[in-house]
């Protein structure tokens, strides 16, 4: 049996970089940091940060570009993928990224709390979902219904006060 599954919960190190490929597919590249905390043999608290690149495609990339911002908490689940490329200096390089397949948005930076997410300032609007949800009259001055808001699941790392104990894990 083979398993390639990654789960990351951390904070964004920069705003998502959303672009469109030549074939018209939307892709978002997200920088993320996760922290590992432990107590060493001398009783001193230690912390180490790891930095990750998460790549999202399609509608998930559009939502990330619209709602995520630097400093926000986020949960990503996906798979590891290593690819090769030639750098500007002509040297072949390899990079390992997480190809995200699901996402949950956490709390805003600076303790902004949960819920009530509005699109980031300057975020480009997401493409309409397949199929009309409401009919909009096309003549000028017509009533335009408010857009249907999606329910986006959230997490909050700030609520985690204690370390996870192995005895609490159900499997």
In summary, what is this structure?
The protein has one helix at residues 58-67; strands at 6-12, 17-20, 26-39, 45-57, 73-86, 92-105.
What report would you give on this structure?
- The protein is built from one helix and six strands; from the N terminus they run E-E-E-E-H-E-E.
- The protein has 171 residues and is mainly beta.
- The chain has one domain (6-112, 148-163): OB fold (Dihydrolipoamide Acetyltransferase, E2P), CATH 2.40.50.140.
- A five-stranded mixed barrel has the order 1-3-4-6-5.
- A hairpin with a 5-residue loop joins strand 2 (17-20) and strand 3.
- Residues 112-116 and 124-145 have low confidence and may be disordered.
């Amino acid at each position: 049996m083979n398993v390639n599954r990654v789960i990351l919960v951390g904070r964004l190190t920069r705003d998502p970089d959303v672009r469109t490929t030549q074939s018209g597919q939307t892709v978002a590249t997200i920088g993320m940091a996760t922290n590992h905390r432990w107590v060493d043999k001398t009783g001193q608290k230690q912390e180490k940060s790891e930095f990750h690149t998460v790549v999202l495609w399609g509608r998930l990339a559009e939502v990330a570009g619209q709602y995520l911002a630097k400093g926000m908490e986020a949960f990503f689940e996906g798979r590891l993928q290593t690819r090769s490329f030639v750098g500007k200096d002509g040297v072949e390089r390899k990079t390992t990224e997480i190809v995200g397949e699901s996402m949950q948005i956490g709390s805003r930076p600076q303790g902004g709390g949960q819920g009530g997410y509005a699109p980031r300032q300057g975020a480009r609007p997401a493409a309409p979902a397949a199929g009309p949800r409401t009919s909009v009259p096309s003549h000028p001055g017509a009533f335009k219904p408010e857009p249907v808001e999606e329910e986006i699941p959230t997490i909050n790392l700030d609520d985690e006060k204690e370390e996870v104990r192995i005895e609490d894990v159900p499997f």
